[in-house]
Design brief:
The protein is an alpha+beta fold and 479 residues long. It folds into three domains: 2-60, no CATH class; 99-187, Pdz3 Domain (Roll), CATH 2.30.42; 191-342 and 355-476, Alpha-Beta Complex (2-enoyl-CoA Hydratase, Chain A, domain 1), CATH 3.90.226. It is 31% helix and 21% strand. It contains 14 helices and 19 strands. The strands form four sheets. Strands 3, 4, 5, 6, 7 and 8 form a six-stranded antiparallel sheet that branches. Strand 11, helix 9 (212-225) and strand 12 (231-235) form a beta-alpha-beta unit. Helix 1 crosses helix 4 (39-55). The longest helix is centred in the first third of the chain and has 21 residues, at 2-22. The radius of gyration is 24 Å and the shape is globular. Residues 89-157 form the PDZ domain. It holds the Pfam family CtpB_N-like. Keywords: Hydrolase, Protease, Serine protease. It comes from Dentiradicibacter hellwigii.
Length: 479
Amino acid sequence: MGKLKHAGLVCAGMLGGILISLQLPALAEKEDVRNRLPIEDLRIFAEVFNAIKQGYVEEVDDKKLITHAISGMLGNLDPHSSYLDADAYKELQVGTQGEFGGLGIEVGMEDGLVKVISPIEDTPADRAGIKTGDLIFKIDNTLVKGLTLSDAVKRMRGKPKTRIKLSIMRKGEVKPIELTLTREIIKVRSVKSKLVEKGYGYLRITSFQESTGAVVAKHLTDLYKEGSLKGLVLDLRNDPGGLLNSAVGVAAAFLPPKSLVTSTDGRAPDSKHKFFATPEDYLRGTRDDYLRNLPPEVRKVPIVVLINGGSASASEIVAGALQDHKRAIVMGTTSFGKGSVQTVLPLPSNTAIKLTTARYFTPSGRSIQAKGIEPDIVVEESPNGNSSSSMRLREADLEHHLANGKEEKAQTPAPDKSPQNKTSEKTKSSSPKNDKDDNSRSDDQDDAPITTRELASKKDYQFMQALNLLKGLQIIQPR
């Protein structure tokens, strides 16, 4: 009994120490924290801990037990909260710089299996044909069931030029799919652009990295060197998101200065924040303002933003901001719906936890979480309305996903007097098939969804519709 009491005190003290080390203002500033600790529940935890230590068939290291306990606590909160061991924490830091080793897929967990959220464009996973919604149930000879997400990701990462076998279950396929991939150093080029024809530009963002805002500014400047633009297609399809400050910077490139881009709201005081199109909110440190020398025409050019079910997080923030300010017409299918904020809180031994601390809201107060951005004009991936949109995994499909939350009272966005906004309502139309209601799927290969390597081509139906809309705006807008 003495050992059990001692174990209980150790565990209670350890958990209390964790809470202090996280420096959560909502807890640390209250004097009655100790009185609010669930002592009885901690005693049960201590009993389980002691039972494992005393009676489990094999000896288990204390650190391993505590790590699994922390992972379990976080993993059962929502799909985006997790414990990061030293390797995972390092990979997270490296990944925001746009370079990491592995296969190139954004993943989550569902029913104990790894579920593909989105393959990253032009990576081994993308080239092998891995699709959103695929369930990975075996990595090499190891079953995924029983592994944590961190463990599964660690097994998929590895040295470049080494091979890995993935066993996949895909909706609509009777037999499992076996794929062998070769790992690479994934260098994600987050921004691509081109002049599709005279006067019309195309800008694609595949992820929001540390440098994305500055790179977008450079691409826009280069596009204008070719002459004035009559319209721009901003492609955010299959963009899984990334850094918040980069999203604010991209939105700021197109919005009037000081416009509200997004707001966050959570329980802790420092989770309540508004982000504006100002250098203070999109720059980190004391770097030069990369938007300072942007051609002024960029903030007036008519824009069509393309989104789909693979557009998540930061890309939803940009689309929602431009939509609410009536700065752009959003086209495509409903986005993924990841409207939650994750804060990385460092722990000892170069580990950390990634904790969901707030929800994102668009400038008008709409919650993105588990709902997504609905396009102004619904356009499926193929002319007949059939596409993979109904098959796509979305935030609302993830186990333990965070609820949408109460949408806050709408705030009136800054008015935009550009000619485009006088015509945008007139150009809205309804698609005969909405991606939320259409459960059909075409077996005709000619109508199959485009691959990422065909984007912004004549075979890209959504892009061609965006381009046609921009040309139409040029005809009907007042001179």
